[in-house]
């Protein structure tokens, strides 16, 4: 009987140790290792520049190193596909324009859908607008449409989504315009200012040209901060382009992890280096939106995209 108590103590200790060992992984707090932030575009663009600056502030707020990796290809679909297939543990995230996640699944074959992601938070809105040269003979969308009904007008065609939205306006207004292929904003600007096209889509580059260009319409869900007199596309046509610059992860992430990353994102948007980049160089507004509100907005935006696709498919 004298040896029984020590044996019981030893057994109890073993059970306790085992229980603690099993509980340890569950109690480990996120993040306990570096987080990889994938940017699905080439280095040097506005989103990649944003992501690199922002990642430093995000790492500080999270209390872990955030490693940036660029994975360009197929308009962002390569990087988006990689993230969609990762384990939803919060250690592989995507910093991207929402259009990369929403438009390709509706118009081409990709290995993900809008539902393949957990939408964690938004940091800004791209300032997307329909613009014209400052001295163009129209100052509003109503005047542009009226002018198009009497004259043959052309626009800078910079890609499938931009073309679809401009054509959607044409369908709604009963007018046709001619798309002139241009290679991004770098080629659009001289085409517009040189009179080779009558109007164009801009993702924000127009803000660098002061009084040389004018905004007729915001493609965002609301009016642009720098052009509050120009109506938004939802006001006139009930749909909007995806304008979010956001962070997303694979579908199925733990809500507690999502909440922690989202809170860190909110803190990071106040970082002086990030604020300076947004205000002085990119001239994009800082617009933090949390996971719940962002997810609802993504769903609404996707429904609008489906309308545009249906109306413009040939």
Give a structural overview:
By secondary structure, the protein is α/β, with parallel strands linked by helices. It has two domains: 6-17 and 28-126 and 243-312, D-Maltodextrin-Binding Protein, domain 2 (3-Layer(aba) Sandwich); 129-237, D-Maltodextrin-Binding Protein, domain 2 (3-Layer(aba) Sandwich), CATH 3.40.190.10. The chain is 45% helix and 19% strand. It has helices spanning 4-27, 46-62, 77-84, 99-102, 104-107, 141-148, 160-173, 184-193, 233-237, 255-268, 272-282, 291-312; strands at residues 35-39, 66-70, 92-97, 117-125, 129-133, 154-157, 178-181, 199-202, 213-218, 244-250, 286-289. The strands form two sheets. It has a six-stranded mixed sheet with strand order 2-1-3-10-4-11, sandwiched between helices. It has a five-stranded mixed sheet with strand order 7-6-8-5-9, with helices on both faces. Strand 1 (35-39), helix 2 (46-62) and strand 2 form a beta-alpha-beta unit. Helix 2 packs across helix 10, helix 2 (46-62) packs antiparallel against helix 11 and helix 7 (160-173) packs across helix 12. It is globular and about 70 Å long. The chain starts with a helix and ends with a helix.
